[in-house]
Design brief:
15 strands, alpha+beta
Length: about 300
């Protein structure tokens, strides 16, 4: 069977593309190879109207590599169908609100994630978009002085640190799953291992482009005092996450996206928390050779 020609429509940004008229659950290997090449080129691929089952989403995500975890619900809906209270007490709501800060996934783990497949099951009537920001284009847009300044710097990355900013005191948890809409948050990402240290500028292992590696999990740049470090990291995020380097996807039920976590940061955006929002996240594991954290 001949491979399918991809209908690629670039987004109005420095990255990203929409691919229509493609059923992800039935593409052959040649078509997937083209899809993977497009993913490396664009960093983010958007697929409308997929309506994948959970098993189909996991299978599709596995085509990009081993999974850090198969599937987690990013959801404010409880098992009984009721919406979680937005009362400053619910742990899952605190995690969802923490995710509204720009970040790369799993920089606080020993190995940073390669990417993710994300799908929409239930979406609110307004809000709840997911934003993406191009850290390769951001690095390339820096002035020469700032590039020289950040080139050799390293920062610590911790989920304890980032969640504390939204009043969430993380508790040591399990690492088998993310969090679901049944028994509550597992504590994934809150670990007692060494605090990850990562460079502020990292070369993408497959494209060779340099990317800023910053976001809400980063803090305490090595060799700087806390105030200087916080100011520089905030300045970089503010500069990086501006048009044309950003795109916010307003979800429709059934949409699927896959993003390159080595290149892009992302964020959730607010929605009326009394409305349900159910999203499914499959996290693609990073290569431990190229995405391992430093410990000093």
């Amino acid at each position: 069977m001949p491979s399918t020609k991809l209908q690629i429509e670039a987004l109005d940004a420095t990255f990203g593309a929409r691919i229509a008229d493609l059923t992800l659950t039935s593409i052959d290997d040649d078509t997937f190879a083209k899809l993977y090449a497009a993913w490396l080129e664009y960093g983010l691929l958007v697929f409308p109207g997929q309506f994948m089952s959970r098993a189909e989403q996991i299978a599709f995500a596995r085509r990009f590599g081993a999974l850090e975890f198969e599937l987690a619900a990013l959801s404010n809906v409880q098992e009984d169908g009721t919406v979680r209270p937005d009362d400053n007490e619910d742990e899952i709501i605190k995690v969802l609100k923490g995710n509204m800060g720009w970040h790369h996934d799993s920089t606080y783990m020993a190995v940073q994630a390669k990417g993710a497949v994300f799908t929409a099951e239930v979406v609110p009537t307004r809000g709840g978009a997911t934003g993406f920001a191009d850290m390769a284009a951001a690095y390339e847009a820096l002035d020469a002085t700032t590039r020289t300044r950040v080139e050799g710097l390293r920062a610590h990355h911790s989920l304890y640190h980032s969640q504390a900013k939204v009043g969430h005191v993380g508790q040591l948890g399990s690492h088998g799953v993310g969090f679901d809409n049944k028994g509550g948050y597992s504590g994934y990402g809150f670990h007692d291992g060494p605090v990850s240290v990562r460079p502020l500028v990292k070369t993408h292992p497959e494209t060779g482009r340099k990317n800023l590696l910053i976001g809400r999990h980063a803090y305490d740049i090595v060799g700087m005092d806390a105030e200087q470090s916080e100011a520089l990291l905030a300045e970089l995020v503010e500069f990086a996450c501006q048009p044309p380097r950003t795109y916010h996807h307003q979800w429709q039920s059934g949409d699927a996206v896959v993003w390159d976590n080595r290149r892009l940061m992302h964020q959730a955006t607010p929605w009326p928390m009394e409305q349900p929002r159910v999203m499914w996240h499959s996290r693609i594991a990073g290569d431990p050779v190229t995405e391992a954290a430093l410990t000093a």
